[in-house]
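Researcher:
Attend to token order:
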Amino acid sequence: MFEKKLTLMAIFAHPDDEAFGTGGTLAKYAAEGCDVYVVTATRGEAGQIADPEVASPSNLPAVRERELRCACQTYGVHPPRFLDYVDGQLAIVNQGQAVAKLVRLIRELRPDVVITFGQDGIYGHYDHVVVHRWASIAVELAADPDWPTDGSAGLAHQVKKLYYRTMIDEAVTARSKNGQRAAVMMDGVPFYFASLPATEISTIIDVGLYADVKRQGILCHATQLGHTSRYSESPEEVIADPWFRQEAFILAQSTVGPPDNLEQDLFRGLR
């Protein structure tokens, strides 16, 4: 009898959103034989260009799409899916249509687990916060056989577990101590990382075996990094960083109940 593979879907806003906080998780589960999909709302048209030799404003969307395809290939996951929205404009598109796109994808790919941003969007990026809302609503509606009433979005599917990506307080503190900015610059000002105490983290995934794969996936996003960064110049230091070797999540919804203690597997209760 055919046994369906466990399936993981990651829903983010831009190319590179998947890289820093979930790249190791994506690589880990792909290596374990799971079907892993990355869904991205935009092609990162409004992103910075760290090195003008890498891209120009006119070809940035195409270049960033190629970068995400490179990263997904590096992680060993399926080619990315795009919702085809414009970077920076997610809050002003038709919200119902956007959610419906995600419902259709969830019903098509039928993931057991979905991961996305939490309500803080990691550092408050408006597109990240919107994607958090879209994904959370889409998971709910995908399971409702009466939505939409005309049945045009495929057969209902119940996602078993929904996770929000997060950061641990100590990891953010460590960034500051080693000289990294604990923020992302947007329009010339710092948007600081949101994080939680370790006691409030439900799930930590050990990605140590996949730390270098994660690093290589990050390097695919050259428009955001340029050709010189700590990821290319100090690879041993990066992959030895204990905070780089773990990725943190909050279990937001589960059909198998909460864990008894710190969870170390997104598919706990489903294997």
Remarks:
- The chain has ten helices and nine strands.
- Strands lie at 7-12, 35-42, 81-85, 113-117, 161-166, 183-186, 189-192, 203-206, 246-254.
